[in-house]
Write a structure and sequence with these properties.
The chain is α/β, with parallel strands linked by helices and 248 residues long. The protein is built from eight helices and eight strands; from the N terminus they run βββαβααβαβααβαβα. An eight-stranded mixed sheet has the order 1-2-4-3-5-6-7-8, sandwiched between helices.
């Protein structure tokens, strides 16, 4: 049986931040408060789906957007290279520019609003990882997102000090994130302490958000904190954060 056979496949259509209509498949499973889990490169790999199953088992309704790649394809150099070629020419994702929000954040915010309107409660959770790590922060601009989690955020690509410190947010979006953090919306960040892909973003988040940024640094130089290089302490911290923020 395929890993996604027990998930309900849907399609969500909405607008990007620059007004372009976007449509992506989504997979849904579970009951309870809503959580959107955004996959890493190269896509909905088995380890991402397995992590999502853990979130379902913890008592949440999980939605998996499929932004790129083939579902259930294993993470290997060929698959990574193929997807990188695709995303590098797609306008939905900001790869190198600083002080810009990736346009796909508009579509993701719409997905969060729809899920929150259906399920109610204080809001929904949003977790991004690697290439999509910062998308959860961009989604926090919308008040429907009450529990943003950033796992090893890697955009813009950490080429040079300026990009390595950038949060993949426009100045206006960063101002809104600061306001929400000051009003009590905490942000959880998880990374390996020596991961070069995350640059100095956690230092930027600490400076911008203060005590509202909850930082978890795992020892070592690995990368995928809740999937390929999964650490139980990271998974437990994420599930605990969702429980605290979404079951109010």
């Amino acid at each position: 049986m395929a890993l996604l056979d027990t998930w309900t496949r849907c399609e969500h259509t909405g607008d990007s931040l620059d007004g372009r209509p976007l449509s992506f498949p989504t997979y849904r499973k579970g009951r309870g408060p809503g959580v959107i889990v955004i996959h890493e490169i190269p896509g909905l790999i088995p380890e991402v789906i397995e992590f999502a199953e853990e979130v379902v088992a913890a008592g949440f309704t999980v939605v998996l957007p499929q932004l790129f790649g083939r579902p259930e394809e294993s993470k290997n150099p060929l698959a990574i290279a193929k997807v990188l070629r695709q995303v590098c020419v797609r306008g939905e994702f900001t790869k190198l520019a600083t002080r810009e929000t990736s346009p796909v954040a508009g579509w993701l915010r719409g997905l969060a609003r729809e899920l929150h309107a259906e399920l109610g409660g204080p809001g929904v959770g949003a977790l991004g990882m690697c290439f999509t790590g910062g998308f959860a922060l961009a989604m926090m601009v919308d008040e429907s997102v009450a529990a943003p989690v950033l796992c090893q955020p890697s955009l813009p690509f950490a080429v040079g000090k300026r990009r390595a410190a950038d949060l993949n947010l426009s100045p206006g979006d960063l101002a809104t994130v600061r306001e929400r953090a000051a009003a009590g919306c905490q942000v959880l960040g998880v990374q390996y302490a020596k991961d070069p892909a995350t640059g100095s973003r956690f230092e930027t988040l600490t400076r911008e958000l203060g005590t509202a940024f909850l930082r978890v640094d795992l020892p070592g130089r690995k990368h995928s904190t809740v999937t390929v290089h999964r650490q139980q302490v990271a998974v437990d911290r994420v599930l605990g954060f969702f429980g605290e923020r979404l079951r109010g």
